[in-house]
Amino acid sequence: MSELRWNPLLEEWVVTATHRQERTFLPPQDYCPLCPTRAGSTATEIPAGDYEIAVFENRFPTFQRHPPEPAVEGSELCPVRPAQGVCEVVLYTSQHEGSLGELPVEHIRKLIAVWADRWLELGALPYVQYVQIFENRGREIGVTLTHPHGQIYAFPFIPPVLERELAACRRHQRVSKHCLLCDILAAERREGTRVVRENVGFTAFVPFFARYPHEVHIVSRVHRTSIAELGDDECWDLAALLKDTVCRFDALYGFPLPYMMVMHQRPSDGKRYPYYHFHIEFYTLHRTADKLKYRASSESGAGVFSTDELPEQWAAELRAAGA
C-alpha cells in the first residue's frame, strides 16, 4: 500500500508505504543486492558483471509510478490520494566498500552528470513537482544497505521544507531585489570564520544558523537554480568539493561519519523560480566521537533546534580535519 494522507494541522502530506516493511535490512556479509551479479552467484539488482554507476527503480518505493488506490476513503478534512511518483536508487560504484569521499574526482564528475540527467528526466514527468536527490550514510541514519549509494525521490508535490525555503527566497527577492542564498553566501565569505573550503565554482561552509553538528552547506558561487544548469567547470569544482567535504567528515573522528546529504533545487512543476539558488546541505549526527545529537522533543515536537557547540567551532574543526 502506498498512499498520501493530508495532515490538516501542519498542512502537509504524510506517506503511508506499508510494503517497505519488507525491504532488505542489513543482508549477510556474503551477499549484497547492490553489487554486480557474479558468475555462479545469487543474482543481485544489477544483471551485469561490473558497472561504473548504476540507476534503477527502488523495489520498495515510497512513491510508485502506478500506485494502488488508497486503502481508506478520505474526507474533506483529511483528503487521501494515491502516492504517485518515482523512487530510484543510484549506485555510486560497483565496489562494495568505500564512500563518496573515496571515489576519484573524475568518477564523482560522472556521478554529477547522472544526477543531472535523472533530475531532468524525472522532473519532466507530468505528475512530478519536485525531484530530491539525496544520500543517507550510516546505520545511525537508518541505512539498511552499506554499499555506496544514494537515492532520488520524485514527489507529486513540493515538500514542506522546500515550500518554506521558496517562500523565504521569494520574500527576500521582492524586498531587497537580491537572491537570498547569494546574500547568505556573500556574508559567509565576507565574515570567513565558518568557511571550510572553496574553489572557483562553490563554497562549503558551516552556516551561521547551523542546526546539526558540523552541518555543511555547499553553495554555487554563480546563481543557479538546479544541478542541470551547471557548466562543465562548475561540475568539476562541485565534484572536488563534495570529495573534500566527505573526506573531512571521515577524518574528523577517525571513522566514516554518518550523514544525510540533500540537494536543494527548484521545483519541476513547470513554473519559474528565478529567485531560488541551488545548494547541497550535509547534516551529521555526531556531536562528539561517541555521542549523538538526537532530534528529540524540542526539535520534533516544536521544530526548534538547539546545539551544543558554536558553528564557528565546528567550521574550525572541519578545517583542521583536512590539514
Descriptive overview:
This protein is an alpha+beta fold and 323 residues long. Helices cover 27% and strands 22% of the residues. The protein contains six helices and 14 strands. The chain has helices at 105-123, 160-176, 180-191, 232-253, 297-302, 311-321, and strands at 2-7, 12-17, 54-57, 80-82, 86-91, 130-137, 149-155, 195-198, 202-205, 216-220, 259-264, 279-284, 286-288, 291-292. The strands form three sheets. Strands 3-5-7-6-11-12-10-9-8 form a nine-stranded antiparallel β-sheet, with helices on both faces. Strands 2-1-4 form a three-stranded antiparallel β-sheet, with no helix packed on it. It has a two-stranded antiparallel ribbon with strand order 13-14. Strand 13 and strand 14 form a beta hairpin. Helix 1 (105-123) packs across helix 4 (232-253) and helix 4 (232-253) crosses helix 6 (311-321). The chain is globular and about 55 Å long. The protein starts with a strand and ends with a helix. The model has no long low-confidence stretch (mean pLDDT 94).
H and E order: EEEEEHEEHHEEEHEEEEHH
Number of strands: 14
Strand content: 15-25%
In helices, the fraction of residues equals 25-40%
Assembly status: single chain
Rg from alpha-carbon coordinates: 20 Å
- Provide the low-confidence segments as ranges: none
Largest sheet: 9 strands, antiparallel
Cα(first) to Cα(last) distance is 50 Å
